[in-house]
Amino acid sequence: MRPHHSFSVVPQLPRSLERLRELAWNFRFSWDPATVDLFRMMDAALWEECQHNPVPFLGNISQQRLEQCAVDDAILANLQKVWNDYSRYLASNQTWFAKSGELSNRGTIAYFSAEFGLATCLPIYSGGLGVLAGDHLKSASDLGIPLMGVGLLYQRGYFRQYLNSEGWQQESYPANDFHNMPLRAARGRNGEEVVIQLPLEGTTLHVKVWRAEVGRVSLLLLDTNVPQNEPRMRTITSDLYGGDSDTRLRQEYVLGVGGMRALVALGKTPEVCHMNEGHSAFLALERIRMFMVEHHLSFTEAMIASAASTIFTTHTPVHAAIDQFNDAQMELIFAEWRKVFGFSLAQLMDLGREKPGVEGLPFNMAVFALRASDFRNGVSRLHGKVSQRMWNYLWPGVPEHEVPITSVTNGIHTQTWISREMRELLDSYLGPRWARDAADQTVWEAVEKIPAEVLWRTHEGQRQRLVSYVRNRIAERLEKSNATVHEIAGVSDILNTGALTIGFARRFAPYKRGNLILRDPKRLLALLTNSKTPVQIVFAGKAHPRDEAGKKLVEEIVRYSRLPEVKGKVVFVEDYDMDVAAHMVQGVDIWLNNPRRPLEASGTSGMKASANGALHLSILDGWWDEAAGSHLGWSIGQGETYIDSDVQDAIESSAIYDLLENEIVPLFYDRGRDGIPREWIRMMKEAMKGLCPVFNTNRMVHDYATRFYFPASSRGARLTENGHQGTRELGEWKKRMADAWPHIAILEINGSEATELLVGQALTVRARVALAGLGPGELEVQIYAGQVSPEGEIIDAEAIPMIPSEDSEDGTYWFRGEIPCRATGHRGYQVRVLPYHPNLISPFVPGLIRWGSDKISDSAPRPVHV
What we know:
Layout: H1 19-24, H2 33-42, H3 44-49, H4 54-60, H5 63-69, H6 73-91, H7 96-99, E1 109-113, H8 128-143, E2 147-152, E3 160-163, E4 169-172, E5 184-185, E6 195-200, E7 203-214, E8 217-223, H9 231-234, H10 245-265, E9 272-276, H11 283-295, H12 299-307, E10 310-313, E11 324-325, H13 327-341, H14 345-350, E12 363-364, H15 365-371, E13 375-378, H16 381-390, E14 406-407, H17 414-417, H18 420-430, H19 433-436, H20 441-444, H21 452-480, H22 485-489, E15 500-505, H23 521-529, E16 535-540, H24 548-561, E17 570-573, H25 578-587, E18 590-593, H26 605-611, E19 615-619, H27 624-627, E20 633-636, H28 645-668, H29 678-691, H30 697-740, E21 745-751, E22 762-770, E23 779-788, E24 794-801, E25 803-807, E26 812-820, E27 827-835, E28 850-851, E29 864-865
Parallel strand pairs: 1-2, 1-9, 2-8, 9-10, 10-13, 13-14, 15-16, 15-18, 16-17, 18-19, 19-20
Antiparallel strand pairs: 3-4, 5-7, 6-7, 7-8, 11-12, 21-22, 22-26, 23-24, 23-27, 25-26, 27-28, 27-29
Helix pairs in contact: 2-6, 8-30, 10-11, 11-12, 12-30, 21-25, 25-26
């Protein structure tokens, strides 16, 4: 039975407690322990019962208790203190952005992501991508950057995990009650709720916009479950990563196109758009449409204007993980857009096809995102290189290391993930700046001041809390399954509060190899059951509901944990979420990470563990490939890759056992008379000093701002001023270049015929180039010089500009340059021509490169030897 009328019931707070309402509806509580302590003071049991969600907490606390709190001096004093701190935080003009005076007039930066992990009470995330997005918003708030997040509000979110009697993963999908979450309906200037409209499959889709406050920044969340929509359309935003390909396409349409329209409806037309993965790439089509309609630009010009201020961050190193859609699907969604663009279906598809013009190829979201963005990055140094190799074919003729994809290594929002005990310790010895200026290396040097015994007792307290938490989780599960009193009592024997504790928690995809440490049961058993130096392992993680291989990994670990000889020493914690993750990264001694290199784009869980004093044991992949160093943790192997995966598993699992047996376990249990492992603590300090100031989202967002956001904003403004004069000029220039390029040719290359040169000398190179009617200032002619490998390829090359020296009567130009001989060895060079325009973000325009060795279709840079 549908209601005749619906309404929301909100807490009735005494006047002296009214400020609690704003504190509860701002996710700053998720990284401010003082706010959480205030709620606990009011009713600790109810706070736990409400699963740390302040909205139902305030709605369910008894009126009698509220009246008591309203006159409780201690509570009121704490409320005043928390409110003052909260108010200062929101109003501060001392943020990094505010102090950068020349940047103060920047407009809104829109950050799009399919998932956001802010806190357990808003379960619209599945794992690392969402948690990173949540941490991104929190650091943007800390830095004072004018950023707004855009995502989807899933009615059921990601699934909840539980295990059957055989240890097989089962899924449940409880519905989210948005009215009992720290969310409010977004309202426009007239005070009415914002509901945008999108054309979809011959009808109108209505999308309600919700708003979450994250410190100083806002997150807009889109919801299709509204009465105006027909039933099948209401379920578009039902599940995160659920449904079929058609559902995913509709979701990504709502995220990209709907997200742009939601921003516009709230008067926040963004100057810069940042796509966190390719799910939101359709925002580029909407921006292009807007530029065409509002500024009367051609499609090419509108795409130039849009790409100039668009950033694309890719997180995947494998093609199979990218969403792709066929012709029929795209036509169903974008038929009206085609008409605006004046496109055929084939032309629309070519925007996202890996090979334009090849019929039958699907529309690849990552390919389109790469083409629709002028700023592109991977999420670690290694992943940036992997991405250059992966997408090299989109820039034919461009050497792999010059493919215009860079990297910004991920980080964590340290305040969110650090334990209460560690926070208090850092406050005492580092001062408050560790939280405010998390990326300041000098602040973290003060970790050395922490007495070894104080740091160790703090860490032991964290481990004890993890053990207690795991026991309670297991006891709750047993009670729900009607276990016997004896079985529940046995929970107290699970885990040892003093044993070396290894943590492994992440998405259970096969490439992450959650079972690698189980490969040699005999060696593992010896580690687990040594009474003098015991080891224990805590596992957690979810496999995607359709990933049977991932589910088998979970089952294997659960079955192993139930073996009598290891029971209580190996534990799998069900229903991995941010709460489980926080307890694990705070309480373990070793964080284990063993993916198949190079399939881990970045990974951030190990960063969270390091901030809490844990040490890392990892494959040299993702962030650890650039972070690993002496005394910071242990690396499994030296970055090797193997063709035979079984051989790789055997070698790397053996390396894990070797490290545990010979280095990690002995070091952990090497204690003095005071029971303190001095050398272990030395490594803890080195890791905290070396990793915390680098691998945090304050540094990461600062990098995005200075390298991408602000340059993109300036470039976008430069192109759009004077009625998009710069856009139109760049569009005309690109057309002239495309027309002229087939006729560009390097006709002659002249260099010294010397076979040997001395270090300090220079080799002069001249090249005659046919310009096809272009001026010499419209091209970059370069010497591409470097070492020649045994295979005859130029490696470690540098590009040396050549200058026009003279023209010829036949319309060609001579260019001249010099190669400095800085080091000995076998060297070589080649000459190449690239387009040049002052408003071009990169000289590498797909299809516009000419090498001296070219035969029109052949653009491999074969060297001239010297």
